[in-house]
Design goal:
Blueprint: E1 5-10, H1 14-27, E2 31-36, H2 45-48, H3 55-58, H4 60-68, E3 73-76, H5 87-93, E4 96-99, E5 105-106, E6 119-121, H6 122-129, E7 146-150, H7 154-164, H8 167-170, H9 177-184, E8 190-194, H10 206-213, E9 218-222, H11 224-227, H12 233-239, H13 242-252, E10 264-269, E11 272-278, E12 285-293, E13 299-309, E14 312-315, E15 319-320, E16 338-339, E17 342-344, E18 350-356, H14 359-362, H15 370-388, H16 397-403, H17 411-427, H18 439-447
Helix pairs in contact: 1-15, 10-13, 17-18
The structure holds flavin-adenine dinucleotide.
Amino acid sequence: MVVPVRVAVIGSGPAGLYTAEALIKQAAGGVRVDVFDRLPTPYGLVRYGVAPDHTSIKSIARYLQRVLESPGVRFFGCVELGRDLTRDELLTCYDAVVYATGAMVDRRLRVPGEDLPGSVAATDFVNWYCGHPDAAGHAFDLSAEDVAVIGVGNVAVDVVRILAKTPDELRSTDIPEHVLDALTASRVRRVHLIGRRGPAQAKFTTKEARELGQLPSAEIHVRPEDMEQDVTADDAAAERDRLVRGNLKVLRGWTGAPTGDRPRRIDVRFWRAPVELLGTGRVEAVRLERTRPDGAGRVVGTGEYETLPAGLVLRSVGYQSVALEGVPFDEDAFVVPNDGGRIVAADGTRQPGEYVAGWIKRGPTGVVGTNKSDAAETVAHLLADLAATPYRAAASVEELLAARGLTPVSYTDWLNLDAAEVALGASLSRGERVKLAHWDAMRDACRRTE
Ligand SMILES: Cc1cc2nc3c(=O)[nH]c(=O)nc-3n(C[C@H](O)[C@H](O)[C@H](O)COP(=O)(O)OP(=O)(O)OC[C@H]3O[C@@H](n4cnc5c(N)ncnc54)[C@H](O)[C@@H]3O)c2cc1C
């Protein structure tokens, strides 16, 4: 009889679950996969990143659920690598380990005033409205009329959209009740979306941009002069790109004079770099410097400044992964150094039995689906390595966790939590589900057996 290989996957986001799926498919039954997550809930950023009003993308969770329900796959929630288990322990329990822990730390602006209260990482705001338990106690001051969102990627656009939508437009989403209450009380009227570079370099996708322009309760405006900034060779080349052409077409449609006939307004501003956040005790404004292309693919400051009022500043200028204890990490690229998913130590040698997938492998790029082929590549290498150099780990992770007094959240426990959220949505007449966001409420719902 062939003894199945045992693989631990750390992280139950898309990368982790596509890895589990690829293992089952490629090993054709000869594998047992244990998927660990520090949260009691699977699906990573599909649950805690993808915007609540993007229900069709969120439905990817239904596909990933089938992976978790596959024979040979087990879920261990509330087990954090580095806190509850070490890397060395994992390697004694599994023939191979795949790290798929994502990238959810914001990059910093590195400008004075960045640490003033009211200057917030967009990820913290996203975590809050997505009901991440680490953010359940956060409070965002939405009492000022102006909010600035720095960065012009899809996450920035998500954040702007959530701020610009009315409570009625968000009621049917899974946003937790306390978040919906805070957004209902919001006095925000103008959301400024600020890009350091020009329209041709905006990172958002055309679909996201178009959606922003179609909000019934918010008008959107781009200054015509921001669209007409000198077209550089870069811009001309970029315009040949389908995505850029699509974005420019949408943006040009927003250059008409504002009519002021809607309760909220989105102001998109290009060629402006934040140089300082201003305020006494908390953020009150952003000082911006106009920029222009330098002809070599970057921008330079022009020495012209302006001050934009903003009671809340949300920084969305990129994400990075965090290092895992004992696992090599590239401090410049913020990824685990790897060759097609095989972890490579600082001296260039391979780390046998250790692999990466998803954002921690390649950085925060691509859509959910990108993680599927990425995971398949890692798994192909992992299985080839195990076939060439068989390794048999002997220790039991259950015994190790039990000896530590830890009871992981099982897949059945998660289904209890899932059912509690669906029931909450129905009882509030809101939608398919309303998320529980507090650790205690989540743990209680997991253990419910009736
Ligand atoms: C705000 C936002 C919105 C997005 N919207 C979209 C969208 O609309 N459409 C789209 O296609 N893509 C979207 N994406 C991109 C998509 O979410 C990512 O491509 C994808 O989630 C990356 O998968 P991952 O598994 O590498 O990371 P993640 O999804 O982050 O999963 C990592 C998992 O690892 C767990 N973990 C972390 N550290 C540990 C540890 N030490 N021990 C145990 N577990 C750990 C985490 O809890 C998490 O569950 C969005 C991303 C963000 C940030």
